[in-house]
Amino acid sequence: MSIGEVTAILRQGVLQVLIIAGPLLISALIIGLVVAILQATTSIQEQTLVFVPKVVVILVVLAVLGGWMFTSLGQYTKELFMRIPDMAR
Predict the structure, then answer these.
(1) Is the pLDDT confidence value at 47 over 80?
(2) How many independent structural domains does the chain possess?
(3) Four-residue CA torsion sign, 36, 40, 41, 45
(4) Which of 17, 22, 24, 77 has the most CB atoms less than 10 A away?
(5) Count of alpha carbons within 13 angstroms of residue 6, beta-carbon side
(6) Collapsed DSSP state (helix, strand, coil) of residue 1
(7) What is the pTM of this model?
(8) Where are the alpha helices (DSSP H) in the chain?
(9) How far, in Å, CA of 52 to CA of 58, rounded?
(10) Residue in 11, 17, 76 with CA at minimum distance from that of residue 3
């Protein structure tokens, strides 16, 4: 196995992580910004006001996209296991 192949596998792994974590991170970022704007306009500085909506939104996104995330990760894992015989050479 060459350095290029190892680099390609690592690149695919990082891309897979970004694809799977992206929707969760983006939704948490958006809800965080919305709550921060609401806090700034109302002068309410309660810490739980930020935490609870983020948790709820992340759970909703996981419920909606969880199947796709696990399928995508499963396909990537199967691809890696299929490459093991080639790596042993």
Answers:
(1) no
(2) 1
(3) positive
(4) 24
(5) 5
(6) coil
(7) 0.77
(8) 3-42, 48-87
(9) 10
(10) 11
8 Å CB contact between 16 and 76: yes
61 and 30 Cβ atoms separated by less than 8 Å: no
Distance (Å, whole) CA 20 – CA 30 = 17
What domain range includes position 61? Answer: 3-87
List C-alpha distances in Å: 63 to 9, 14, 43, 59: 29, 23, 33, 6
Tell me if 1 sits within 8 A of 87, measured CB to CB: yes
Q: Backbone phi, then psi, for 83, in 5-degree steps?
A: -85, -15
pLDDT tens digits, one per residue of 50-88? 888 999 999 999 999 999 999 999 999 999 999 888 877
Q: Which of 50, 51, 58, 54 is nearest to 21 (CA)?
A: 58
* Residue 53 burial (C-beta neighbours within 10 Å; 0-12, 13-18, 19+): middle
